[in-house]
Amino acid sequence: MRETRADTRQAMLLAIGLHMLLFGLMFAGLWWTRTAAPTSAAGAPVEATLVDADALSQSMRQALSDRPEPIARPEPEPLPEPVEEDAAPPPQPLPEPVPQDAPTPPQQQAQDFIPVPDTVEQDEVVDVPTPTPTDEEKLQEEKRRQAQVDLTEKKRQEEAERKRRLAAEAQEREEKLAEIRRKRAAAAREAELAAQKLKQIADAQAASNTDSSSSAASAPAGNNGVDTGLKARYAAALTEAILAKWTRPETVPLGARCKLIIRQLPGGEVMDAEVASPCAYDELGRRSIEAAVLKAQPLPYAGFEPVFARTLELNFVAQDR
Protein backbone atom coordinates (compact mmCIF):
# COMPACT_ATOMS: atom_id res chain seq x y z
CA MET A 1 0.00 0.00 0.00
CA ARG A 2 1.40 3.44 -0.97
CA GLU A 3 2.06 5.98 1.84
CA THR A 4 0.40 9.38 1.45
CA ARG A 5 1.24 12.82 2.82
CA ALA A 6 -1.59 12.59 5.34
CA ASP A 7 -0.14 9.39 6.75
CA THR A 8 3.34 10.98 7.05
CA ARG A 9 1.94 14.05 8.83
CA GLN A 10 -0.05 11.90 11.25
CA ALA A 11 3.03 9.80 12.09
CA MET A 12 5.14 12.94 12.81
CA LEU A 13 2.46 14.36 15.09
CA LEU A 14 2.22 11.10 17.05
CA ALA A 15 6.04 10.95 17.45
CA ILE A 16 6.21 14.58 18.74
CA GLY A 17 3.38 13.91 21.20
CA LEU A 18 5.15 10.77 22.53
CA HIS A 19 8.41 12.69 23.12
CA MET A 20 6.61 15.46 24.94
CA LEU A 21 4.90 12.89 27.19
CA LEU A 22 8.24 11.25 28.03
CA PHE A 23 9.85 14.63 28.93
CA GLY A 24 6.90 15.44 31.17
CA LEU A 25 7.29 12.15 33.05
CA MET A 26 11.03 12.75 33.55
CA PHE A 27 10.44 16.24 34.94
CA ALA A 28 7.77 14.96 37.37
CA GLY A 29 10.19 12.26 38.62
CA LEU A 30 12.97 14.78 39.28
CA TRP A 31 10.62 17.12 41.15
CA TRP A 32 9.34 14.26 43.31
CA THR A 33 12.86 13.19 44.44
CA ARG A 34 14.00 16.76 45.42
CA THR A 35 14.84 17.11 49.19
CA ALA A 36 12.24 19.09 51.05
CA ALA A 37 13.29 22.05 53.36
CA PRO A 38 13.21 21.41 57.18
CA THR A 39 10.02 22.50 58.86
CA SER A 40 10.31 25.12 61.67
CA ALA A 41 8.12 24.12 64.64
CA ALA A 42 6.81 26.70 67.22
CA GLY A 43 7.86 26.57 70.93
CA ALA A 44 11.00 26.69 73.13
CA PRO A 45 14.05 24.84 72.01
CA VAL A 46 14.94 21.44 73.56
CA GLU A 47 17.57 21.58 76.33
CA ALA A 48 19.80 18.62 77.30
CA THR A 49 22.11 18.05 80.36
CA LEU A 50 25.14 15.75 80.16
CA VAL A 51 25.42 13.29 83.06
CA ASP A 52 28.33 10.94 83.81
CA ALA A 53 27.20 7.35 83.63
CA ASP A 54 29.39 6.36 86.60
CA ALA A 55 27.55 8.82 88.81
CA LEU A 56 24.24 7.12 88.23
CA SER A 57 22.78 4.64 90.67
CA GLN A 58 22.72 0.92 90.14
CA SER A 59 19.00 0.82 89.27
CA MET A 60 19.39 3.61 86.70
CA ARG A 61 22.30 1.86 85.08
CA GLN A 62 20.24 -1.36 84.94
CA ALA A 63 17.33 0.46 83.32
CA LEU A 64 19.65 1.99 80.75
CA SER A 65 21.15 -1.39 79.90
CA ASP A 66 17.70 -2.99 79.46
CA ARG A 67 16.32 -0.44 77.05
CA PRO A 68 15.47 -1.81 73.56
CA GLU A 69 17.68 -1.35 70.62
CA PRO A 70 16.63 1.54 68.39
CA ILE A 71 14.79 0.47 65.25
CA ALA A 72 16.81 1.13 62.20
CA ARG A 73 14.97 3.18 59.69
CA PRO A 74 14.83 1.56 56.25
CA GLU A 75 16.75 3.31 53.66
CA PRO A 76 14.67 4.64 50.82
CA GLU A 77 14.74 2.54 47.68
CA PRO A 78 16.56 4.19 44.86
CA LEU A 79 14.37 5.53 42.19
CA PRO A 80 14.63 3.88 38.81
CA GLU A 81 16.76 5.70 36.37
CA PRO A 82 14.94 7.31 33.52
CA VAL A 83 14.67 4.94 30.60
CA GLU A 84 15.91 6.24 27.34
CA GLU A 85 13.78 5.77 24.32
CA ASP A 86 16.13 3.38 22.52
CA ALA A 87 17.39 1.53 25.65
CA ALA A 88 16.19 -2.03 26.20
CA PRO A 89 14.20 -2.68 29.41
CA PRO A 90 16.13 -4.45 32.21
CA PRO A 91 15.48 -8.17 32.68
CA GLN A 92 12.66 -8.94 35.07
CA PRO A 93 13.22 -11.46 37.87
CA LEU A 94 11.37 -14.73 37.62
CA PRO A 95 8.51 -15.13 40.09
CA GLU A 96 9.17 -17.52 42.92
CA PRO A 97 7.08 -20.67 42.59
CA VAL A 98 4.22 -20.99 44.99
CA PRO A 99 3.25 -24.42 46.39
CA GLN A 100 0.41 -24.70 43.91
CA ASP A 101 2.78 -24.06 40.96
CA ALA A 102 5.70 -26.13 42.24
CA PRO A 103 6.81 -28.92 39.85
CA THR A 104 6.71 -31.47 42.70
CA PRO A 105 4.29 -31.50 45.64
CA PRO A 106 5.79 -30.47 49.01
CA GLN A 107 6.88 -33.30 51.24
CA GLN A 108 4.45 -33.92 54.10
CA GLN A 109 6.79 -35.97 56.29
CA ALA A 110 10.49 -35.80 56.84
CA GLN A 111 12.70 -38.45 55.30
CA ASP A 112 14.20 -41.18 57.39
CA PHE A 113 17.74 -40.56 58.36
CA ILE A 114 20.20 -42.67 56.39
CA PRO A 115 23.42 -43.01 58.39
CA VAL A 116 25.46 -44.38 55.49
CA PRO A 117 24.39 -43.48 51.95
CA ASP A 118 24.17 -46.42 49.54
CA THR A 119 26.49 -45.94 46.57
CA VAL A 120 25.11 -48.93 44.65
CA GLU A 121 22.33 -48.09 42.22
CA GLN A 122 19.18 -50.10 42.87
CA ASP A 123 16.66 -51.09 40.18
CA GLU A 124 13.06 -50.14 40.51
CA VAL A 125 11.10 -52.58 42.60
CA VAL A 126 8.12 -53.98 40.69
CA ASP A 127 5.60 -56.71 41.34
CA VAL A 128 6.64 -58.75 38.29
CA PRO A 129 10.17 -60.14 38.50
CA THR A 130 12.55 -58.95 35.84
CA PRO A 131 13.11 -61.76 33.33
CA THR A 132 16.58 -63.02 32.81
CA PRO A 133 18.11 -62.88 29.32
CA THR A 134 17.43 -66.61 28.87
CA ASP A 135 13.77 -66.24 29.79
CA GLU A 136 13.47 -63.22 27.53
CA GLU A 137 14.92 -65.16 24.60
CA LYS A 138 12.56 -68.06 25.28
CA LEU A 139 9.61 -65.65 25.41
CA GLN A 140 10.60 -64.03 22.11
CA GLU A 141 11.14 -67.43 20.51
CA GLU A 142 7.72 -68.59 21.72
CA LYS A 143 6.13 -65.44 20.30
CA ARG A 144 7.83 -65.99 16.92
CA ARG A 145 6.76 -69.65 16.89
CA GLN A 146 3.17 -68.71 17.72
CA ALA A 147 3.20 -66.03 15.01
CA GLN A 148 4.49 -68.60 12.49
CA VAL A 149 1.78 -71.07 13.54
CA ASP A 150 -0.89 -68.39 13.17
CA LEU A 151 0.44 -67.44 9.74
CA THR A 152 0.51 -71.07 8.60
CA GLU A 153 -3.04 -71.63 9.84
CA LYS A 154 -4.21 -68.48 8.09
CA LYS A 155 -2.62 -69.58 4.81
CA ARG A 156 -4.16 -73.06 5.17
CA GLN A 157 -7.60 -71.57 5.71
CA GLU A 158 -7.16 -69.23 2.73
CA GLU A 159 -6.06 -72.14 0.51
CA ALA A 160 -9.00 -74.27 1.65
CA GLU A 161 -11.38 -71.39 0.99
CA ARG A 162 -9.87 -70.86 -2.47
CA LYS A 163 -10.21 -74.58 -3.33
CA ARG A 164 -13.80 -74.63 -2.07
CA ARG A 165 -14.63 -71.56 -4.17
CA LEU A 166 -13.00 -73.06 -7.27
CA ALA A 167 -14.84 -76.36 -6.73
CA ALA A 168 -18.15 -74.52 -6.35
CA GLU A 169 -17.48 -72.52 -9.53
CA ALA A 170 -16.52 -75.69 -11.44
CA GLN A 171 -19.65 -77.47 -10.22
CA GLU A 172 -21.78 -74.52 -11.24
CA ARG A 173 -20.19 -74.53 -14.71
CA GLU A 174 -20.77 -78.27 -15.06
CA GLU A 175 -24.40 -77.86 -14.03
CA LYS A 176 -24.86 -75.08 -16.58
CA LEU A 177 -23.20 -77.16 -19.34
CA ALA A 178 -25.34 -80.18 -18.43
CA GLU A 179 -28.47 -78.03 -18.57
CA ILE A 180 -27.42 -76.66 -21.96
CA ARG A 181 -26.72 -80.20 -23.26
CA ARG A 182 -30.07 -81.41 -21.93
CA LYS A 183 -31.91 -78.54 -23.60
CA ARG A 184 -30.06 -79.15 -26.88
CA ALA A 185 -30.85 -82.88 -26.77
CA ALA A 186 -34.52 -82.17 -26.01
CA ALA A 187 -34.66 -79.67 -28.85
CA ALA A 188 -33.00 -82.16 -31.20
CA ARG A 189 -35.46 -84.88 -30.21
CA GLU A 190 -38.38 -82.55 -30.69
CA ALA A 191 -37.07 -81.50 -34.07
CA GLU A 192 -36.54 -85.14 -35.09
CA LEU A 193 -40.02 -86.11 -33.92
CA ALA A 194 -41.52 -83.16 -35.75
CA ALA A 195 -39.65 -84.11 -38.91
CA GLN A 196 -40.79 -87.73 -38.59
CA LYS A 197 -44.38 -86.66 -38.06
CA LEU A 198 -44.26 -84.39 -41.09
CA LYS A 199 -42.78 -87.19 -43.17
CA GLN A 200 -45.37 -89.65 -41.88
CA ILE A 201 -48.19 -87.26 -42.70
CA ALA A 202 -46.82 -86.69 -46.20
CA ASP A 203 -46.31 -90.43 -46.80
CA ALA A 204 -49.76 -91.21 -45.38
CA GLN A 205 -51.35 -88.70 -47.67
CA ALA A 206 -49.50 -90.08 -50.67
CA ALA A 207 -50.33 -93.68 -49.72
CA SER A 208 -53.92 -92.76 -49.03
CA ASN A 209 -54.29 -91.24 -52.46
CA THR A 210 -52.70 -94.25 -54.12
CA ASP A 211 -54.64 -96.83 -52.08
CA SER A 212 -57.92 -95.01 -52.54
CA SER A 213 -57.53 -95.04 -56.29
CA SER A 214 -56.45 -98.71 -56.37
CA SER A 215 -59.16 -99.80 -53.93
CA ALA A 216 -61.82 -98.01 -55.85
CA ALA A 217 -60.72 -99.79 -58.99
CA SER A 218 -60.26 -103.32 -57.55
CA ALA A 219 -62.56 -103.69 -54.54
CA PRO A 220 -65.95 -105.22 -55.36
CA ALA A 221 -68.87 -102.85 -55.08
CA GLY A 222 -71.08 -103.19 -52.02
CA ASN A 223 -68.58 -105.52 -50.22
CA ASN A 224 -67.33 -103.73 -47.11
CA GLY A 225 -66.68 -106.82 -44.97
CA VAL A 226 -63.52 -108.65 -43.96
CA ASP A 227 -62.35 -111.25 -46.41
CA THR A 228 -59.12 -113.00 -47.33
CA GLY A 229 -58.65 -110.95 -50.44
CA LEU A 230 -58.36 -107.70 -48.49
CA LYS A 231 -55.93 -109.30 -46.03
CA ALA A 232 -53.79 -110.58 -48.87
CA ARG A 233 -53.65 -107.14 -50.48
CA TYR A 234 -52.83 -105.60 -47.06
CA ALA A 235 -49.95 -108.06 -46.59
CA ALA A 236 -48.70 -107.34 -50.12
CA ALA A 237 -48.84 -103.57 -49.45
CA LEU A 238 -46.85 -104.00 -46.20
CA THR A 239 -44.24 -106.13 -47.96
CA GLU A 240 -43.96 -103.60 -50.79
CA ALA A 241 -43.49 -100.69 -48.33
CA ILE A 242 -40.78 -102.58 -46.37
CA LEU A 243 -38.95 -103.70 -49.53
CA ALA A 244 -38.80 -100.05 -50.63
CA LYS A 245 -36.73 -99.22 -47.52
CA TRP A 246 -34.69 -102.44 -47.31
CA THR A 247 -31.31 -103.20 -48.83
CA ARG A 248 -30.78 -106.97 -48.87
CA PRO A 249 -27.44 -108.02 -47.36
CA GLU A 250 -25.32 -110.45 -49.36
CA THR A 251 -25.69 -113.03 -46.57
CA VAL A 252 -29.47 -113.23 -47.06
CA PRO A 253 -30.37 -115.38 -50.08
CA LEU A 254 -33.28 -114.54 -52.35
CA GLY A 255 -36.54 -116.19 -51.36
CA ALA A 256 -35.50 -116.66 -47.72
CA ARG A 257 -38.44 -116.25 -45.35
CA CYS A 258 -38.60 -114.53 -41.97
CA LYS A 259 -41.50 -113.92 -39.61
CA LEU A 260 -41.98 -110.28 -38.49
CA ILE A 261 -44.09 -109.06 -35.54
CA ILE A 262 -45.09 -105.42 -36.01
CA ARG A 263 -46.82 -103.26 -33.37
CA GLN A 264 -48.44 -100.13 -34.80
CA LEU A 265 -50.97 -97.38 -34.21
CA PRO A 266 -53.92 -96.37 -36.33
CA GLY A 267 -52.50 -94.39 -39.22
CA GLY A 268 -49.55 -96.76 -39.72
CA GLU A 269 -47.09 -95.35 -37.11
CA VAL A 270 -44.79 -98.19 -36.01
CA MET A 271 -44.20 -98.60 -32.28
CA ASP A 272 -41.98 -101.70 -32.43
CA ALA A 273 -40.75 -104.32 -34.92
CA GLU A 274 -38.94 -107.57 -34.14
CA VAL A 275 -37.97 -110.82 -35.83
CA ALA A 276 -39.62 -114.06 -34.61
CA SER A 277 -39.11 -117.71 -35.41
CA PRO A 278 -38.97 -119.16 -37.97
CA CYS A 279 -36.43 -116.82 -39.62
CA ALA A 280 -33.71 -117.94 -42.07
CA TYR A 281 -31.79 -114.64 -41.83
CA ASP A 282 -28.51 -114.19 -39.98
CA GLU A 283 -27.99 -111.48 -37.37
CA LEU A 284 -27.13 -108.82 -39.93
CA GLY A 285 -30.22 -109.64 -41.98
CA ARG A 286 -32.51 -109.58 -38.94
CA ARG A 287 -31.27 -106.15 -37.81
CA SER A 288 -31.57 -104.78 -41.37
CA ILE A 289 -35.18 -105.93 -41.79
CA GLU A 290 -36.18 -104.47 -38.40
CA ALA A 291 -34.62 -101.15 -39.42
CA ALA A 292 -36.43 -101.25 -42.76
CA VAL A 293 -39.80 -101.63 -40.98
CA LEU A 294 -39.11 -98.55 -38.88
CA LYS A 295 -37.99 -96.57 -41.96
CA ALA A 296 -41.13 -97.57 -43.89
CA GLN A 297 -43.54 -95.95 -41.42
CA PRO A 298 -46.23 -94.87 -41.71
CA LEU A 299 -47.25 -98.26 -43.03
CA PRO A 300 -50.24 -98.55 -45.43
CA TYR A 301 -53.46 -97.80 -43.58
CA ALA A 302 -56.01 -95.98 -45.72
CA GLY A 303 -58.35 -98.49 -47.39
CA PHE A 304 -57.26 -101.32 -45.08
CA GLU A 305 -59.08 -100.14 -41.93
CA PRO A 306 -61.27 -103.29 -41.75
CA VAL A 307 -58.23 -105.58 -41.58
CA PHE A 308 -56.01 -103.23 -39.53
CA ALA A 309 -54.51 -104.74 -36.34
CA ARG A 310 -52.30 -103.09 -33.78
CA THR A 311 -50.16 -106.23 -33.59
CA LEU A 312 -49.77 -108.18 -36.79
CA GLU A 313 -47.57 -111.01 -38.07
CA LEU A 314 -46.03 -110.75 -41.52
CA ASN A 315 -44.21 -113.53 -43.37
CA PHE A 316 -41.54 -111.58 -45.24
CA VAL A 317 -39.85 -113.06 -48.29
CA ALA A 318 -36.42 -111.74 -49.30
CA GLN A 319 -36.37 -110.30 -52.81
CA ASP A 320 -34.87 -107.39 -54.68
CA ARG A 321 -36.78 -104.42 -55.95
UniProtKB/TrEMBL annotation:
Q: Which SUPFAM superfamilies match?
A: TolA/TonB C-terminal domain
Residue stretches of biased makeup (Low complexity): 205-221
Would the keyword Transmembrane be found if you checked this record's keyword annotation?
A: yes
What is the superkingdom listed in this entry's lineage?
A: Bacteria
- Extract the ranges annotated as region (Disordered): 60-111, 124-173, 205-225
Query: Which stretches does UniProt call biased (Basic and acidic residues)?
Result: 64-76, 135-173
Q: Where is the composition biased (Pro residues)?
A: 88-106
UniProt keywords (A-Z) are: Membrane, Transmembrane, Transmembrane helix
Task: Show the stretches that span the lipid bilayer.
Answer: 12-32
- Respond yes or no to whether keyword Transmembrane helix is given for this record: yes
Supply the name of the protein.
Answer: Cell envelope integrity protein TolA
Q: Which organism is it from?
A: Novilysobacter luteus
